[in-house]
Design brief:
- The complex is a heterodimer.
- Chain A is of the alpha/beta class.
- In chain A, helix 3 packs parallel to helix 6 and helix 6 packs parallel to helix 7.
- The model of chain A has no long low-confidence stretch (mean pLDDT about 90).
- Chain B is mostly helical.
- Chain B has one domain.
- Chain B has 15 helices and four strands.
- A two-stranded antiparallel sheet of chain B has the order 1-2. Chain B has a two-stranded antiparallel sheet with strand order 3-4.
- In chain B, strand 3 and strand 4 form a beta hairpin.
- In chain B, helix 4 packs parallel to helix 10.
- Chain B starts with a helix and ends with a helix.
- Classes of the chains: A alpha/beta, B mainly alpha.
- Chains A and B meet through helix 2, helix 3 and helix 4 of A and helix 9 and helix 10 of B.
- The structure holds adenosine-5'-triphosphate and magnesium ion.
- Adenosine-5'-triphosphate (ATP) binds next to helix 1 of chain A.
Chain lengths: ~250, ~400
């Protein structure tokens, strides 16, 4: 499924009080397919997502996006999200005080301006889409429940559902399987693989079995830069990777 | 999910019905058109309380729903009062001056009349000229526009600076307090153009309507306040009922997440902050003609803190909670500080409520915050749960316990 380049990060660095969390990192992502990022704690995986989504401003480097090669540097988080980058956080963050339905409706790709939102009334098409998504993430029966009442795994799915509702071109997913049972993990894998058929999906994960099931190209991050890249078997046989990550 | 607005929010209808009944009751008992059971000054107190309930609704929008603990909304309230007060004072003084000059042998020129009015109004601060801010004081229409425009603009500028710099939480609250304090200190100056600490007075007299008794004027203002509260409540309920409400509650609970959904959080905060400032301005413009006088002490930072206390005690995040909080606390406050509650003699010490009321209020605020974060409004949830035990997690809309709300109002 090779296709055009969607995201290109090149030579990006960022320091926190002198500590280089990301060091001359380069990374490209095609417009379709899955990619896993692995690496030890503190390798900079989350910080990488922070940079792409505009939460953290890089000190150096270029981040270009889409066919027109526009630069994401200097754009606000909201603007980047509207460009088509969706993000799932390491810790599930859904709006607990609101129903599953409201969460999905809020995420849905629609006009984001205050006036448009003020006069927005969900039409049949939008409601159908919400039901469809709820079915995909297995939360049809929970639509009217407050999302705070959901189980941990269900919250993770809801967040993935909200991502899908945004209809992004690139999904950044931080540790989606953390704290899930085996059955839940399998469902999550299926969700991500399905999503990657029509868009780019980058998954950060520690769990090797999970990564193996994703069956995709893997990037190993260490001390803020890419240590190895390739198939899972390829990177796991790399001596450096074994030393810093697997052999601990 | 596609039922009409009222069907989805029965509490709004119930609230409006209660308000309507209340207005009817007060009208029937008033001196002006009723049996005179309620004194004119009490009707004014009730009208003022409705204005306070309106600003409490605004506060609930900005704090309870959007999570911005503004400790400055009384500044907007005061500004609204000043804007209408300028017209009231100017027009009335002009009437008085015109009458007195009419008796003079030579008719006065326009400049002479202007000077006489200015001397009359600004004599107390040692001036006989109109300051620039009074340029439009002779136009009711312009001053009415300013009632919303001045608070709205101040909120817009302040909010733009603060929100863009991503000041949040306690720092933002402190900033709003600083704004309020700065405004109050400025108004205290004699050359502020608004009569320094004398403030504006005689606002209860409507220009050109000297023949109308205060009993009737007070009723007019009471009606206007009730209408403003009703409309404000309706507007607020509509705003929070749909997707906009979802977004602002999202901002309250996790603004970073809302940003990553693609919403411009700063713009939303600005809309709410400036919008509620304008509502506060309207509430103030209705309040001060009933109070009769406005001075910079009204804008003191403590007033805005009280506002937060009302909303917290009433229960934030539900509009009727704010209304109940405002009514409940102001009512008790006037009971205790007005000496209606007998002092408690402990033998070695006499508890004088006039002195102790603030401590009681402060303590209840702390207790509510710690042990009953839902406030008085939370009681309705309890009762609603008891009558509908198997609600299976349906949204706890503000439609519960409306019966009690009625009780609270009557
Ligand atoms: N805002 C920040 N200020 C200071 N240091 C930071 C900040 N964000 C991240 N760091 C540091 O940067 C390094 C990389 O952190 P990051 O969260 O990206 O790691 P990670 O690869 O996601 O790790 P994990 O697997 O534990 O989630 C860590 O040492 C972290 O302490
Ligand atoms: Mg991380």
């Amino acid at each position: 499924m090779s296709s055009t380049r969607l995201l290109e990060v090149s030579g990006v660095s960022v320091s926190f009080d002198g500590f280089r969390a990301i060091n001359n990192l380069s990374f490209t992502m095609p417009s379709h397919g899955l990619r896993a990022i692995i690496g030890p704690n503190g390798a900079g995986k989350t910080t990488f997502m922070d940079i792409v989504t505009g939460k953290t401003k890089p000190d150096d480097g270029r981040i270009t996006w889409g066919e027109k090669n526009i630069s994401l540097r200097g754009m606000s988080e909201a603007r980047i999200a509207r460009e088509g980058i969706g993000r799932k956080f390491q810790k599930p963050t859904v709006f607990e005080d609101q129903t599953v339905h409201q969460n999905l409706l809020m995420a849905q790709r629609n006009k984001r301006g205050p006036l448009a939102v003020l006069f927005y009334r969900a039409g049949g098409k939008d409601l159908d889409r919400v039901n469809e998504l709820a079915a995909t993430i297995g939360l049809t029966d929970e639509l009217a429940r407050k999302s705070g009442e959901l189980s941990h795994g269900q919250k993770q799915w809801l967040e993935i559902g909200m991502l899908l509702a945004q209809e992004p071109r690139l999904l950044l997913v931080d540790e989606p399987a953390a704290g899930m049972t085996l059955a839940e993990r399998e469902r999550t894998t299926a969700l991500l693989v399905e999503a990657a058929k029509t868009r780019a999906v980058v998954v950060v994960e520690h769990d090797m079995d999970f990564v193996r099931r994703l069956n995709c190209r893997v990037t190993v991050l260490h001390e803020g830069s890419v240590l190895a890249e390739g198939s899972l078997d390829h990177v796991t046989s790399n001596q450096q990777v074994i030393d810093v990550y697997l052999g601990r | 999910m596609q039922r009409s607005f009222v069907a989805r929010n029965p509490s709004v209808l119930i609230f409006l019905a209660c308000l309507g009944l209340f207005v009817l009751g007060v009208t029937v008992l008033s001196e002006a058109v009723g049996n005179g059971f309620l004194s004119t000054s009490f009707v004014k107190t009730l009208g003022k309380t409705l204005c306070l309930a309106l600003i409490a609704v605004a506060m609930d929008l900005v704090w309870g729903y959007t999570g911005i603990l503004s400790l400055g909304h009384f500044a907007f309230f005061g500004l609204g009062g000043y804007m209408i007060g300028m017209w009231l004072m100017y027009e009335r003084t002009r009437d008085i001056v015109a009458t007195s000059l009419a008796e003079a042998p030579i008719p006065a020129t326009v400049t002479e009349i202007q000077e006489a009015i200015a001397t009359q109004i600004f004599g107390v601060v040692g001036s006989n000229e109109f300051p620039l801010v009074w340029s439009f004081a002779d136009s009711l229409v312009i001053q009415l526009i300013l009632v919303v425009a001045v608070p709205g603009l101040l909120a817009l500028v302040f909010g733009w600076l603060a929100f863009r710099a991503r000041v949040t939480g306690v720092y933002l609250s402190i900033l709003t307090q600083a704004m309020t304090l700065a405004l109050a200190l400025y108004l205290f100056q004699n050359d502020s153009g608004l009569r320094g600490n004398n403030g504006l007075s005689g606002l209860q007299n409507l220009p050109g309507l000297d023949d109308v008794p205060q009993a009737l004027v007070s009723l007019w203002f009471f009606w206007a306040s009730a209408a403003a509260l009703g409309l404000g409540y309706l507007l607020a309920a509509w705003v929070v009922s749909g997707k906009f409400g979802s977004v602002i509650r999202g901002i309250r609970d996790n603004e970073a997440r809302v940003r990553f959904l693609g919403y411009q959080v700063e713009v939303y905060k600005l809309v709410i902050f400036a919008g509620t400032a304008m509502i506060s301005g309207i509430a103030g413009a209705l309040y001060y003609p009933q109070a009769g006088i406005i001075n910079p002490a009204e804008i003191a930072p403590i007033a805005s803190i009280y506002l937060a206390v009302w909303v917290a005690i009433g229960g934030r995040g539900r509009l009727y909670g704010a209304v109940i909080g405002a009514i409940f606390v102001t009512l008790f406050s006037s009971l205790f500080t007005g000496g209606q509650v007998p002092d408690v003699n402990l033998g070695f010490y006499t508890v004088k409520w006039v002195d102790w009321w603030l401590i009681v209020l402060g303590l209840s605020f702390v207790l509510v915050t710690l042990y009953a974060p839902k406030g008085i409004g939370g009681l309705f949830d309890l009762i609603a749960h008891r009558t509908h035990p198997d609600r299976h997690g349906a949204p706890l809309g503000p439609d519960m316990g409306a019966l009690q709300e009625k009780e609270a109002q009557e």
